[in-house]
Amino acid sequence: MSNLPLIFGTLGPIFAMILLGSGLRWLQFPGDGFWPAAERFTYFILFPALLVRQLAIARLTDYAVGPVAVIIVVLLLGMTAIVYALRPWLKVDGPAFTSIYQGVIRFNTYVGLSVVLAMFHAEGGTVAALVMAIMIPLINVLCVLVLSVHADGGASIVGVMRSLITNPLILACLAGIGLNVTGIGLPWGSAVVLDILARAALPLGLLAVGAGLRLDALARPGLLLATSALKLLVMPGLAGVLCWLVNPGQLETAVLVTFAALPSASAAYILARQLGGDGPLMAAILTVETALALAMLPIILVWVI
Hints:
CATH topology: Na+/H+ antiporter like fold
Oligomer: single chain
Largest sheet: none
Number of strands: 0
Number of helices: 12
Structural class: mainly alpha
Shape: globular
CATH architecture: Up-down Bundle
């Protein structure tokens, strides 16, 4: 418990930024049109810049990439099996089930990188980038497959592949790793440019998280709490067990469990709207999970540390 002041001191500014974004959206400042544009700018420009910078200059051989990949694959497939096993008990239709699934399996990259960089510094940020390089493609494939089977819309294999090969976060991870392994690094002053862009990524991303909260969408509280329990309790618990079995290293374990405990991301709502999922339920899940994560993350970090 001696780590509590450090944890609350670290998480406090992160949560304050989320609450500030929510307050600004409520005050309609600087306007409703600002937030979708800010999120797109962060997603396509600022966040990729952060990932490229982090991976291009990292010493990747210092980290247990193989064990981390094994843990991520088993974790995501294990949670998929758990959600499917609970579907009869949840008593929901196909579109609602896809929203529950996305609420359990996805994670908010803005919150995750902010927490990891604040708690575990540059080394933790590198491990987080590696985790994202593995998790993001697999999560997108799983979510689109589930939506294609259970939602009212439909998704083709071509559409899945197109979304993967054009995903800016995946492309940024691949670019950063490519610059690293080829020995090119960040030449011609690009490190300074990427550093400036990266500094803007997390604060703007956190404000956008807060602005995306929808307090008017909180229907079906039992279903929302069940989904949140799977995401914020069961998933980090399973990640902890897998890390104990595989033993990837202390820093890798800390980052993996932290990412497993993150709330879902706004991309889940966009995907639900595009592919026939339950959009209002997805928005409610995002809101409840983000609010509960404010209380749960300090507890998870105490356990991790």
